[in-house]
Amino acid sequence: MNLLGNYPLLTLNLCTSFSIKNGLFIVFIRNEPTFWYDVVLKRLTIVKKPKELLISDKTMKKKIAIIGAGIAGLSAGIYAQMNGFDSEIYESHNLPGGLCTSWKRGEYTFDGCIHWLTGSGEKDSFYKFWNEIGALEGKKIIDPDEFMRFAHPDGTVVKYYTNMNKLQAHLLEIAPEDAKQIKKLCRMVKKMSRMKSPLDKPYSLMKFKDIFKMIFTMLPYMRLFKYLNSTSVKDFANTFQNKYIRESLRQLLYMEDFSLSGIVFTLSACHNKSAGYPIGGSLEFARSIEKKYVELGGKVRYNSFVEKINVKNGKTTGIQLKKGEEFGADYVISAGDLYLALEKLLDGRLEGSPYENLFKDEVSFPSAVQVSFGANRDFSDQPNTIIQHLPLKNSITIAGEEIKTIGFKSYNLDPTLAPKGKSTFIVFHSAQDFGYWEKLKQDKDAYKREKQNILHQTIQALEEYFPGIMEDIEVSDVATPLTYQRYTHVWKGSYMTWVQTPENFNKLRMIPYQLPDIKNLYFSGMWLMPPGGLPCGVKTSRDVIQLICHEENRTFTTSVE
User: Which of 157, 268, 275, 526 could form a disulfide with 532 if both were Cys (CB 3.0 to 4.6 A apart)?
Assistant: First the structure.
């Protein structure tokens, strides 16, 4: 599930590390000296390996084994095939997409992932990447009028329009006393909407001209970046006098400790019409990427659970399936869950690794409970918004947590998900306590009762806003944190990764793609680029294939010769 869409710009390394030693001005990227400037002699020297001949004959293909056919795994496969490698993807499930999925219940399709897609429009840096992997080919994109709306018990409704001029006018109407802060928010969003991030290369492969270009591009935004990254959503929201705006801002990303950059980057994508929804839903989106991979000659082995990454003499040699089969490879890319890879596939390598403190100290996004419905009711009168937050007269209890507001989403704009005149819609509940679900894991009957209880209470809550909905519902489904964990093995059933706060923002910007003591093994996926989401899958996999090309002295390409 990707309720938060994605905020990949949060991870951008806006400044490198600098040091002056013995008269030399040294620049570090990923703790490696990239170039130095001699302060005394005013001389620039580039630190790099001696130039070697590029391999032009791609007939001598090397094998890359990719674990997981989610967005990250499929992207890695596509870029591998484009660059002359022989790749094969091993997927435990029988479908592509991982968390980016949909499922059928009778004549209805329930979507479990894309609420908005960062990079769906050409003004966003990720638009290029989605087109490279065929994700948007033939896709109709619907851009919502509203990002979210928050209803209050007294009838006040705060609407976060995707157009900043419209948002500013609406908020000023509600809270003229907060004019200064309202205009500040919309001004920041508009400014960030004009920026295109230099995402083409992993930082460790950037040359002096790339660094100069990045600094030149980011310079007009540096001061704003510093403010956004060092300010929490909660602190910014508390500068508003109006309680409706203050409360809604704190709920906008579900995590009030999140850096303010999360809200500003998300709304800037909305303002650019680059945060739309692809008609057909998440599984069809994933299938488009799978189609591109197969057309390029890639192979996907479904129902193939990887049990072990084989390592010999400090170098990966391939993978082993749960069935016992072994497949050799020159390179292995683990594009699934990072915790699973470290603790299970590599026999407990988390401890002492560069990732240990992330899982030990950082706060991850909560999981979720998604209750999906197919109903014989026309919801075409519902607003074109991603999520509506509806307050309840009588609170309900979900997984031991008191719920006073439900998140409602209608898919009335996607005619492919329900028969004509009928509707698919969902109710979203945040699941903060994963331990509650882990206990239920041990008791199947208790787990089934909890799911029934959630379904019953959710329908009762819906009756407040849609009288008679109980009779109209034809099919329903409850997906819990255990559903997500079972389906994709994701750590704690999370749909995103770590929460980026002002305190840990810098710490989470540069997560390595490799373990230092295992050659030819790479990791990709959302865990390598907090706070996660689909664009992080394609970006990290693109980076990894570039790193492998560099290792093989090949020129990275995004086209097919």
Answer: 526
